[in-house]
Predict the 3D structure of the following.
Amino acid sequence: KAGVTQTPRYLIKTRGQQVTLSCSPISGHRSVSWYQQTPGQGLQFLFEYFSETQRNKGNFPGRFSGRQFSNSRSEMNVSTLELGDSALYLCASSERGWGPYYGYTFGSGTRLTVV
Amino acid sequence: DAKTTQPPSMDCAEGRAANLPCNHSTISGNEYVYWYRQIHSQGPQYIIHGLKNNETNEMASLIITEDRKSSTLILPHATLRDTAVYYCIVRVQGGSEKLVFGKGTKLTVNP
């Protein structure tokens, strides 16, 4: 079974630009979550999608948005990039997102550098 | 904020058991203890979870105290590849609860 695939692996953008990151979950997984990891703040939850609906959102400004498609693939978008948005962005997928234990499987992340 | 407290770093000799402690004194009755680890430049990897009973799988053992206020992750025979940051997380099993990561413990396994 293929794992969680995130593309691109690395990205360099300029302040003020926008960026779109992609995540393909494990086949059959319907829940996709996004996390931001920085040296100062650690791993922080951005949002979670299940069956194309955002179910939970972290404490990030509206510049951070996401969506999920009918095939469970997800994208996150950051508009008007700031230097502080430089981070590793991680995507995690799980089968259902509730009930008896379900595992989160993380991708390797997209390393975004804003210059 | 994370509901867990872990030592920032620990060392362990290769081949010996690594015992990683975690305090979660405010854990609720319906919250589980989860452990993940993150090897450098990779995404976090699930290790094990439990509610109140001790648990064991092919990767590790989880010992939860009777009052559930603390737990210990045990890697029985640590290898160099176990060098990573280990995160202890408490969360409700159900709904769409997010994972709240603390700073974790950086475990270094030495040859």
Observations:
- The interface with chain A takes residues 32, 41-46, 49, 87, 93-104 of chain B (CB under 8 Å).
- Chain B is about 0% helix and 45% strand.
